[in-house]
């Protein structure tokens, strides 16, 4: 996507607040300007940083107070909802599911963006992150999904005293990752014991163990499926390695491109423009 001139007042502002990450783009139509990020920022903070006035439209995804729409639902048809505290702010609803109980916030916009760039695509979208999701997409709808706390578990376990290792010798180790993946994928019920084994706290091995257990539980979502992975490069890499090790062909995507495409599609819906 071409970048808008930084000195121009934006037509609107696009905000991605997925999983506590706040970043925004001043938009000229469908063209984004330079991304703006601030730790602890509010929607109003980021909109102002993008040069927005009090009446400049803002479209966001991923906010924890955004409404939820039950699946099956079409991400490309979700109508942004008004934020009671910010009249110019519209929030893209997330997705909810009764059984297994869960929610997706921000992922629906990435799926919408992916589908806008890949019309008539059916398959499963994997969304890595602190809370990962596997979403089954058919005829433009998310028909079911399964969520996991793998990313948050990795961070929490790495902070556990009994699993801490020397960070100077704890860079990416593909061999350790593959070993952990194979062990947990074949015996996920032994995950707690595998974590307690020597080397269980090594960052790469820990990723292998946790993603192996996740893949074992999500097998019906990836085995024999058309699969796309949407996330940051760092989050995507171990999932792609794990899936490809199982002979699963994976479509790799750019997270920023997908979320911007989804936010632009939502803005166009609000403006009554074709998506």
Question: Explain this structure to me?
Answer:
This protein has about 280 residues and is an alpha/beta fold. About 35% of the residues lie in helices and about 25% in strands. Strands 1, 2, 3, 4, 5, 7 and 8 form a seven-stranded mixed sheet that branches. Strands 13-12-11-14-15 form a five-stranded mixed sheet, with helices on one face. The chain has a three-stranded mixed sheet with strand order 6-9-10, with helices on one face. Strand 14, helix 8 and strand 15 (about 250) form a beta-alpha-beta unit. The chain is globular and about 60 Å long. The model is unreliable at about 1-5 (pLDDT under 50).
Brief summary:
The chain contains 9 helices and 15 strands. The chain has helices at 43-49, 107-117, 150-158, 174-186, 191-196, 203-217, 219-222, 233-245, 255-271, and strands at residues 12-16, 23-28, 31-32, 36-37, 58-61, 68-70, 81-83, 86-91, 94-97, 102-104, 123-127, 132-138, 141-148, 227-229, 250-252.
User: Which series of helices and strands comes N to C?
Assistant: EEEEHEEEEEEHEEEHHHHHEHEH
- What is the overall pLDDT average? 92
- Beta strand count: 15
Distance N to C terminus: 15 Å
* Oligomerization state: single chain
Radius of gyration: 20 Å
Q: Characterize the main sheet.
A: 7 strands, mixed
The best one-word shape is globular
Helix content: 25-40%
Structural classification: alpha/beta
Number of helices: 9
Residue fraction in strands: 15-25%
Poorly predicted sequence stretches spanning 5 or more consecutive residues: 1-6
